Amino acid sequence: RPLEMSAKKPVPFLRQVIPVTKKVHRDPRFDDLSGEYKPEIFMKTYSFLDSIKKQEKEMVQKQLKKCRNVEQKEKLQQLLNRMTQQEQAQKKQQKLRERELSLKRQQRELAKQGKKPFFLKKSEKRKLELAEKYAELKRSGKLESFLNKKRKRNAIKDKRRLPSQK
Question: Is the model's pTM score more than 0.70?
Answer without folding.
Answer: no
